[in-house]
Amino acid sequence: MSDTIQAYKESEQSYYFLFMEIDLIVRLGFSFLFMIFWGMGPVTAGATYILRNYAKEAHAWLWSDFVKAFKDNFKQSLGVFLIDVLAFLILYTAFVVYGQIPGMIGSMRYVIVMIIIVYTLMHPYIYQLMITFDMKFKDLYKNALLFAIGKLPSNLFVTLIVLAIHVGSIYFATFYTGGYIIIAQLVVLLLECLILVSFSGLMLQFNVYPKLKLFIPAETVTVKSLYEED
User: Fold this and answer.
1) I want to staple 81 with a disulfide (CB 3.0 to 4.6 A). Which of 41, 67, 144, 220 is the partner?
2) Quick count: other Cβ atoms within 10 Å of Cβ 113?
3) pLDDT digits over 207-226, tens only?
4) Which residues are CB-neighbours of 159 under 8 A, at least 6 positions away?
């Protein structure tokens, strides 16, 4: 009897630690996805300049160009980040509230999901417009919205690929590595920090740059002197 109780306790403890590991990796994964799809203000502005140059096969000095873009776009990118935090809180709260309401009113949660998707698709355009053109906030969001909806199929396609890479790697490391789950999760975390985040950003910029170059000619707007196009 005592052996059975001891085995039960050990099993319960292992499930508890497994749950804690999964919870931690999910939280980290969500943080990475937020950083990739919505951005982190001035940091994303600096990174976007580097990745945009790579997307158009132009040279960029990693540190000096990052710092320059970080400083030059600090106020505007910080404003975008603060708006993102507020938008996240409002949309999350609205989704939870409507999800608990039955009937037609409760179906508004699907509208919230659509808003989140479109708002997510806007962000690669917001940051590249910001570091390339001299635009006010309303123009950043207006143009980003037009591109997000106007080029919806390709935007969704690239976004789903990026999402699959991150969710798939986390899912595989959590459920298909057996007793090596901790090592696998550490490997995924290392890959996220060193490769996957920047690779995902590059994919998004490869999708965005040709569209901006085609539909917003440099002569139609004020181009920032640091970022003159070829």
Assistant:
1) 41
2) 12
3) 999 999 888 866 555 666 44
4) 37, 120, 121, 204
The pair phi, psi for residue 60, each rounded to 5°, is -150, 135
**Contacts by residues 53-56 (CB-CB < 8 Å, ≥ 24 positions apart):** 54/202, 54/205, 55/202, 55/205, 55/206, 55/208, 55/209, 56/209, 56/213, 56/230
Q: How confident is the model at residue 229 (pLDDT cuts 50, 70, 90)?
A: very low
Give the span between the Cα atoms of 131 and 226, in whole angstroms: 9
Query: Do the Cβ atoms of 124 and 97 come closer than 8 Å?
Result: no
pLDDT tens-place string over residues 46-90 = 999 999 999 888 888 889 999 999 999 999 999 999 999 999 999
**Could you identify the residue written with the tokens 């980290």?**
28
| Secondary structure of the chain in HEC code, one letter for each residue | CHHHHHHHHHHHHHHHHHHHHHHHHHHHHHHHHHHHHCCCCHHHHHHHHHHHHHHCCCCCCHHHHHHHHHHHCHHHHHHHHHHHHHHHHHHHHHHHHHHCCCHHHHCHHHHHHHHHHHHHHHHHHHHHHHHHECCCHHHHHHHHHHHHHHCHHHHHHHHHHHHHHHHHHHHHHHHCCHHHHHHHHHHHHHHHHHHHHHHHHHHHHHHHHHHHHHHCCHHHCCECHHHCCC
In terms of Cα–Cα distance, which of 204, 148, 169 is closest to 25?
A: 169
CA 226 to chain CA centroid, nearest Å:
26
Residues 210, 215, 216, CA angle at the centre, nearest 5°?
Answer: 100
